[in-house]
């Protein structure tokens, strides 16, 4: 059974940090790029960051560049999203997703597997 389990969300004050984890099982993790998406209430889901299967490339949307860092540990089948200097506008449910192949994409319809999401709430 394919599983992507996102965890690490919570309620924090603006300026603080959180680290999200995405633990994968049931598929060949090394063969997939992994992305993080988020969806805020009343808004469309957006791609936040992605790391390719070789760890050579990481991608970020402009609003999180310099604050978020994505990494992956292929030995543990886990991807992390370190989020620093959090702002209220970062409040959303965060999802991790896996897309087969070498390259990242911000098109959510291209992803093969999705996790259940973890809530991040940033208070001002």
Protein described:
The structure is a single chain. This protein is an all-beta fold. Helices cover 0% and strands 51% of the residues. The chain contains no helices and eleven strands. The chain has strands at residues 3-7, 10-13, 18-25, 32-39, 46-51, 58-60, 68-73, 78-83, 92-100, 113-114, 118-123. The strands form two sheets. Strands 2, 4, 5, 6, 9, 10 and 11 form a seven-stranded mixed beta sheet that branches. A hairpin with a 6-residue loop joins strand 5 (46-51) and strand 6 (58-60). The chain is globular. The protein starts with a strand and ends with a strand. 34% of the residues are buried. The mean pLDDT is 94.
Continuous helix count: 0
Q: Which class do the helix and strand fractions yield?
A: mainly beta
Determine Rg (CA atoms, Å): 13 Å
Name the beta content range: over 45%
Low-confidence stretches: none
What overall geometry do the principal axes of the alpha carbons give? globular
What is the strand and helix layout of this fold?
Blueprint: E1 3-7, E2 10-13, E3 18-25, E4 32-39, E5 46-51, E6 58-60, E7 68-73, E8 78-83, E9 92-100, E10 113-114, E11 118-123
Parallel strand pairs: 2-11
Antiparallel strand pairs: 1-3, 3-8, 4-5, 4-9, 5-6, 7-8, 9-10, 9-11
Can you describe this structure in just a few lines?
This protein has no helices and 11 strands. It is mostly beta strands.
Q: What attributes does this structure have?
A:
124 residues; mainly beta; seven-stranded mixed beta sheet; four-stranded antiparallel beta sheet; 0% helix
